[in-house]
Amino acid sequence: MKLAAIVTTSLLVTAAAADELPPELAAVFDRMPSVDPTEWAYTQTVDDGESVTVRRFDPSSNRTWRLVSVDGRRPTDDELATHAEWVRDQNDGDYLGENDFAGLAVAGSWSLTGEQDERRRYRFKPDVSDDDFLADHADRLGGELTLDTERQTVASFRLFNEKPFRARVVAKISKFDLAIDMQKVAAGTFFPSRVTTRIEGSALFRRLDSTVVTTYSDFSRRAPDAAANAEFVAD
To answer: Chain centroid to CA 198: how far?
Structure first.
């Protein structure tokens, strides 16, 4: 899921402790616990470069996921049908709110690489052991996490390829970049604000060039009893 390049005025090269999380990161991660997303209503906007899809998630509504618009207009019947299929896919539990920052990295791989103003950068080796696809290319991936040192929060993090790799034999991926920016929506509550996924490469003699930007906004807390009974229901 891009981050602007940070011009480093003071380069720090400090190895993280071999067997533990650097204390600074441990303290920040403790301040940003996992959140149950079914206790919150929010708007999701997906821009894939060809169309813009806006959805609203509301656990207190009979229509938990509602397709608001496509390219600024009311959705068609076909788009509503596609949306219903998308909603069914959400039942695998793959939604925002985990905030498992420590779990991003292989143990002992954190290293402080630089800072500028109120931003401090750490590099890490991504732990993708639970991802069937990326696990096959773990040796070609890198990660970067940026701290907001003034607010003592995670500002953003990235997973990216350091070397090209092949996907399902037929596709060669020359660039893979997943960037996630974080936001505070309430005291002790943090969600992604923007997820940008960039893929470049080739497949079956065709060029791949895709950028998908997903933003999350308009958060509001819902009653716990309504959240407990929330189901993924399509509009």
So the answer is: 12
